[in-house]
Amino acid sequence: MKKVVIIGGGIGGLALANLLAKKGHEVHVYDKNAQMGGRAGEKKAKGFTFDTGPSWYLMPKVFQDYFALFDVNVDKELSIERLRPGYKVFFESHESVTIRGDLAKDSASFEKIEPGAGQALERYVAEGDYIYQMALKHFLYTDFSRLHQLAKGEILKGSAKLLTLLATPIHSRVKKFVKSRPLQQILEYPMVFLGTSPFKAPAMYSLMSALDFKEGVYYPAGGMYSIIRLMVAVGKKHGVKHHTNAKVKKITHTNGQATGIVLKDGTKINADIVVSNGDLHHTETKLLSAEAQSYPAQFWKKKEAGISALLMYVGVKGSLPQLEHHNLYFVDAWKENFTSIYENKRIPESASIYVSRTSATDPSTAPKGHENLFFLVPLPTDVPISASKQTKLANHFIAEFGKAIGEPELGSKIVLKDLFGPADFKEKYFAWRGTALGMSHLLGQSALWRIPPKSKKLKNLFYVGGNTMPGIGLPMCLISAELAYKKITRNHRPGPLRDMKGEW
Ligand SMILES: Cc1cc2nc3c(=O)[nH]c(=O)nc-3n(C[C@H](O)[C@H](O)[C@H](O)COP(=O)(O)OP(=O)(O)OC[C@H]3O[C@@H](n4cnc5c(N)ncnc54)[C@H](O)[C@@H]3O)c2cc1C
């Protein structure tokens, strides 16, 4: 039995803790905040319950496979329901479009907007689904340390297509399928969830459209935080010790071996294995001494942090039946919006935004007669915003969204408004450049080019979470936990642990 300390109780850290504890190790998770879950937190105020970050439950099989390792049927345990419709899109100068998650109906909606686009959508989703299935089978559950495992007939056969999709920005690919701006926007927006721009992200991420158009968008009863509650409960059952309000200030090491951690109050904790689920820039440049850094300050200068964000947790009196559970609003200045965020690093005047209304399907998230709205406005990283500017921006974007949904008085119906901006990401999660999601999914920061689960300098220091392979998002972080687990236990077999039938 080894003693393992995990810095950070984000979903990746918690998921790895459970795997190691189930195999009999003594596991301690230390998080600086009062609540486990990291970005996937929960916030309650005035009778409203908000998920602080993630709200889209995608890739259900990844959750099923992970929890099955603990004999938990996650669909039953969390009452996972498919959302129908999947989401609704509002445009600055086009009628709204509802995405039903039923390909026949959605292609009919596309066809109405652009002749030929119905079939084009079907082809696009089929291509995305091909990439998705290939990714699940061969590219997500691997840290690429044994490249010969990828020399398989199926991969070699598809390699020309896969390479093209790697080398082409998704915007250029989408243009080949649909011509009208609203349809291009629908197919390109998911890149924001990967922290990148459709003008830079590789076209292989068209797999995201296979998720929302084909596989479906899901929701756990009571909100996304119920995933974290379940994760913690599973951990407790297997003996994981969760420590909150426990900021780690140092990883100790000697002779190329990590020896433990030091907490902010000076407490020294020895360990056989140290794992960081915290922001990797922070871990590498602040918790480790120079000789132990695999990714020193110089490394980060050449990397893209992706987006930051202004989040708004908003309670509204009255009802907003024109909104679905998930809603997007796209502005005409589409490319300019991305250029402001990624290239010019300017706060955009006009922004495409995401708004969830969980009270649409889950009345427990708002008091009777009220709506629960969560706004996500993508912003550039590393641009300081004063508190007063942030408040002004919030009011401006709420007013814009109100106009777009035919609710010009939205601002006056608000009974609760809490803001969380770039400075809060830095303060609460030690986020590099205030990034909301972590290192973006540019080609050079994806797949085998993303940070692997093991330190290059310390033998027993490992990494888990959204900055590591395979990347951003809750399902990706569950996979990252499996990759870190395999690295720690020297299990070199590709594929999900569930496929190893108990031999993991
Ligand atoms: C606004 C927003 C919306 C999102 N939407 C979705 C979505 O709809 N669907 C989806 O699947 N994903 C979504 N994501 C992405 C997803 O939430 C993240 O990829 C995932 O939660 C990251 O988990 P993680 O394991 O990397 O850890 P994190 O959540 O980043 O947690 C790391 C933890 O480590 C702690 N920590 C760091 N340093 C220290 C230290 N020195 N000492 C102690 N503790 C430390 C931090 O406090 C934090 O609690 C969203 C994210 C955000 C922010």
Note down, in words, how this protein is organized.
It contains 16 helices and 19 strands. Helix 2 runs parallel beside helix 16 (474-488), helix 4 (103-113) packs across helix 5 and helix 5 (117-139) crosses helix 9. The protein has a 7-stranded mixed β-sheet with strand order 7-6-15-16-17-14-18, sandwiched between helices. Strands 9-2-1-13-19 form a 5-stranded parallel β-sheet, covered by helices on one side. A hairpin with a 4-residue loop joins strand 11 and strand 12 (268-270). With 504 residues, the chain is of the alpha/beta class. It folds into 3 domains: 3-40 and 222-295 and 451-500, FAD/NAD(P)-binding domain (3-Layer(bba) Sandwich), CATH 3.50.50.60; 84-216, no CATH class; 304-429, Guanine Nucleotide Dissociation Inhibitor, domain 2, CATH 3.30.519. Bound molecules: flavin-adenine dinucleotide (FAD). The site of flavin-adenine dinucleotide has 38 residues, from helix 1, strand 14 and helix 16.
